[in-house]
Amino acid sequence: MNIKSLDIKNFNIKKFLMNYALYIIMLLMIIIIACISPKFLSLRVLRDILTQSSTRILVALGCMFIIVSGSADLSGGRVVGLTAVVAGSLAQQATYYNKFWPNLPELPVIVPILAAMLVGLGIGAINGYTVAKLKVPAFLATLGTQMIAFGVNCLYFNKAPNNSQPLGGFLKSFSEVGTGSMFGIPYLIIIAVGAAVIVWIFQTKTCLGKEIFAVGGNAEAARVSGINVFKTLMITFMIAGSLYGLAGCLEATRTGSASSSYGLAYELDAIASCIVGGCSASGGVGSVPGVVMGVLIFNVINYGLTFIGLSSYWQYVVKGLIIIVAIAVDVRKYSSNH
After folding, report:
1. Which helix (H) or strand (E) holds 39?
2. What is the pTM of this model?
3. Where are the domains of the chain?
4. Which tens digit of pLDDT belongs to each residue from 94-111?
5. What is the DSSP pairing of strand 185-186 with strand 181-182?
């Protein structure tokens, strides 16, 4: 009797560690960094981490849709860069000396935001059609789109009279989105939280959200059950593209500038955040809270190691180890359930 109780207790401990290993690791890292530099636990640092994480959360949420549907997307980072430049080129003051469109009047702040999201949506539609209709493997299709997006961005950015000069001179209303706050909470954090809530509701409370999980779990079974797989994948990639576009626009507002180099490797960080946050690489599994936590884990690492003066090269080592641990835990969790 006692032996059985002990076995059950041990099983529960193992299960707990398996489910929350990454959260425990992050907590331990925070404790270690805080012991080295107690100022790391200040509200200012927390605010900085959350602000820097905001655009990354949007990219990771878009990436989550793709992974849950059983696909992959390598174009996210370059879409962020392209949409940052597009939004920035439409948000300059009329008096700016190097205005991208010299004859364009000052536009309402909603215009560059919508333009960026529409460009992202369009690229997402191309990805979705290529994957769902032309049956090109998602990895290769989005790799091609990544190159096209970067090439188009460089051509657009190099247009006279800009000639590849970093964009600046943004309207105050545009910059305010990235630097302003409400009741002490930056707008970027509010937008990221709002987007996360909307995505969570869509993912868990709508038929289409559940269909995305079904397609990711088993596309053929979903098709037999009456789900339009083509439509589902198209919408999935288009939602992801829109989120990439919004992230690109907000990145321009946050930094007060934009260039064709923006968004470099964002898609890799997003994929890593999703995997660390519990998304299954084989599709059909993923949650908004897990993805948000995955983004925060990597940003705590980046900010924390920089904060204590450790070489930035260590960030890659730690990130790689965490990804390996996350996949190992996921595999063990999956095998233990079967």
Report:
1. none
2. 0.90
3. 54-264
4. 999 999 999 999 999 999
5. antiparallel
